[in-house]
Amino acid sequence: MNYLLKLLSILIAIIIILIKPLILIRFGKVPSKFGHLSQNLFVEFYKSKKIKALDLYSVNFNDSDVSNNFLFNLWKKKINIIPIYRGNFFNIIESYCLKISKKDTHSIPRFKIKDHNMLITYPPIFDHDKIFSKLQKKSILKKYNIPNDAKWICINNRDELFDKLNKDRYVKVHKRKNFSINSYNMMINLAIEKGFYIIRLGVIAEEKITIESDHIIDLPFSKMRKPEDDIFFISNCYLYFGADSGPWTLAAMLGKNIAFVNFTEIFFLTENLYSLSLPFLPSLALDPLTNKLLKFKHYKKNRIHRSIVNDTFLSPNTNFYHHNQNDIKNYFIEILDILNLKKKYDFSTDQELFFNNFTNSSNLAYSKSNDLRVSKIILNNYKELLL
């Protein structure tokens, strides 16, 4: 580090510490990934709500395509922040504030993985109906030839192209989340029959939806797509039905209905997202020796999970069976029935058999009184895995 820059950073840090009785200055970071941007600022907003401070965020993205700039500008209306683009200098000052004061007073409380549950239990910060003006809404709907009174379902998946374009370790570990968009085909046809439009979210995708219909908007392949369109469709959707990648966190913080398809980290749910109100459909782990479906009671010893409580992570050699079109269609029917009846599942014996395999630690926040349920597709079609 340049000597003068280091000296200046130390001097500014000392001044910030000394003026703390007059004004508290804190530093934070805005993540570059869309999903992390949504969840981190949401949680930090609530953690900081009762603290008067001047918050300086370093913004380390320069993005024109994946909606980050639009979303960040939305947040600037809610949080007292001064965006410092490419703010490494401010990160250095923050580190010296920490070293000199021996306290993290000058750091905005960071998002922690256990904070995920706040996304679905705390009230939405934004009124989803007011993010876009009436004129903006009409303009976007007209562009995609969607009626003003239409209802739509947002779907999402991750496929191989995402991994090919991103070479970091985080992405490689999460390759198990990848599945084909065409696994949704039967569900899409049924949704269209019921009068819904289908909005496929995202920018990076290898496969197109193969169904031809004017009720389908395949955003990754749309030449009309603008960065804010994903946010518009998520904020006004009837249901988010898809993978546990980026967009779901925005749907959660806006209070939308969320149904997870092919979820690979069951321990993550029981530890960190145990108030999820709709049943989830997990992918099924394959035995590394026989390549057959693994019984749930063997998940833990085979490290088929990511557990923060138990400090263990998914084995990099784990492979998963992702559900076929029929399973996903029937899961969709199950979700619609719950939404139409507005009635949650009772905690049945089979539910208890399932969750007993993922709640062995006394430190887990999940209990029978929570909302979390697994889909009946698992309990009915894969019952042998419960035994």
Can you describe this structure?
It is a single chain. Helix 1 crosses helix 4 (88-101). The model is unreliable at 308-312 (pLDDT under 50). The protein is of the alpha/beta class and 387 residues long. 35% of the residues lie in helices and 12% in strands. The protein has a six-stranded parallel beta sheet, with helices on both faces. A three-stranded parallel beta sheet has the order 1-2-3, sandwiched between helices. Strands 10-11 form a two-stranded antiparallel sheet. The protein folds into two domains: 3-111, no CATH class; 134-386, no CATH class. The protein has helices at 3-18, 34-47, 68-75, 88-101, 118-121, 134-143, 160-165, 169-173, 185-193, 229-235, 247-253, 266-272, 325-341, 349-355, 376-381; strands at 25-30, 54-59, 81-85, 152-156, 197-200, 216-218, 239-242, 258-263, 281-282, 284-285, 320-321.
Mean pLDDT: 85
Number of strands: 11
Helix content: 25-40%
- Multimerization state: single chain
What topology emerges from the helices and strands here?
Layout: H1 3-18, E1 25-30, H2 34-47, E2 54-59, H3 68-75, E3 81-85, H4 88-101, H5 118-121, H6 134-143, E4 152-156, H7 160-165, H8 169-173, H9 185-193, E5 197-200, E6 216-218, H10 229-235, E7 239-242, H11 247-253, E8 258-263, H12 266-272, E9 281-282, E10 284-285, E11 320-321, H13 325-341, H14 349-355, H15 376-381
Parallel strand pairs: 1-2, 2-3, 4-5, 4-7, 5-6, 7-8, 8-9
Antiparallel strand pairs: 10-11
Helix pairs in contact: 1-4, 2-3, 2-11, 9-13
